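Supplementary Note 3. Input sequence used for the single-chain structure prediction.
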Amino acid sequence: MTLNKYKIVLFFLISFAFIQINAQEELVVDSRKSEADIKIEDRFLSAKLLITSGKKDEAIKLLDSIRRESGQVAAVYFELAKLYNERKEINLTESNLSAAVKIEPNNKWIRLFEVNFFKELGRYDDAIKTLKHLSSLDPGAPELYDHIVNLYIKKQDLPSALATLDAKETNFGFSINTILKRAEIYDNSGDITKAVSELEKLTIKFPTDKNYLRLIANMLHSNDKIKEAEPYLQRILDVDPNDIDAKLGLVLLSNKSVSKEDYLLTLTPLVSNPDAPIDLKIKELIPYVQRHADTRDTILGRQLIELCDKLVIAHPNDPKSHAIYGDVLMNNDDVTAAIRQYEKTLSINDRNFMVWEQLMYGLEMVENNDELAKVSMQAIDLFPNQAISYYFNGKALAAKNEFKKSLSSLDEAILISAGNVSIESRVLTVKGDILLKQKKLEKAMESADQAIAISNQKNSVAYELKGDIYKEQNELKKAIVAWKQSKDLGNNTVRLGEKLKLSIGN
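The predicted structure, written as discrete structure tokens, is reproduced below.
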């Protein structure tokens, strides 16, 4: 398609959107546009073309001039709000968004953007208020109730969440998702009796469906009511006498003590069921993930990987499934695969800093410094008050020999950390590495010694640096001692292993 044709198509699409977003202007009897209106639309088209071509600063200037001249055009304010939101300029985003809402309070697309904007800021009451307005405009949209429920849960206002579910049920009738969400809320609030009671409604309505019986059994297990799961396992066998998982569960329950490790084998049906709440699945898996992190049990690791693989298949668009899978893979020393899961998590929702941090640790471990420099800057843009991001950025830049930029980030990390010993020790180690590369060996050793001292002799990377400095000073025996100390403290990088192998071989 030629550029001219592209421009014509885009003109019609934008003109249609422009007309739609101003559809309230129906009182004008003469449908013919004035020359001023045509000029505004033409300039609005030009601004959209600038946005499409990536010239967003120029688009903002043009839209702002249109705003000053045209006044009451919601589309112009809306576009400005979206552009400022991309730039994380919160005040300008909100002022333009408020103007667009004032002009067209019933415009669905503007108000949905407003909901997401408020959610990002944690202003859940404002988001709920907007959703309720949208619901009043579109009474036949049950998904709006679901959004309101999720926001009440984020606020920890469980009574309001339950009341909203009741209203949804009154307006739309029976819904499996409504009952499952209600059971999930009761479960998370510790009222397991009411949670089971809700799920029992599904077993009555669908008596031959094993999934809901299994869901109850697993919910009881996750709340340490393991023996109470027995009748539900038996009811599964009444429906399907050949159900292997239910048989295994009953065998385990017949023992005087039930092994939680053995019970992990029975979680496959729950984890694989896309209709079961993911929070219940996470609650079941977390104890095993923590145990695996502590013990590095390879058999447990393989079981968790199989379960998490099923979890992401059942919930491919939920960031929680990919995040926990990433943790399991990281604890299983499959760092590259863990990085992919963390990246997938952030592609769905980038507002959880712990995932950013795990991703940066992973990139540090595989020494992908180009990507670490890029990701750490993205994390800084989203979470400017997290000192660890500046450290990772400084370390990546130091590895790329961009020392001036590195030191700037490292100094920022110290400033923000406000006395955090772990951050200070890490920063001193990177600064020592920079000094080593600059052949300033005495200062490099001072930095390494400081890093070790303030870490209470636990900074393994600083010991590796100390060995590198000794090697540069031709004191190989001292270097080997320092490298061994680094390894004893848990530094198992390939690079350190090669240093020890080569030095001992010599």
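Residues 3-21 form the longest helix (19 residues). The CA atoms of residues 272 and 310 lie 5 Å apart.
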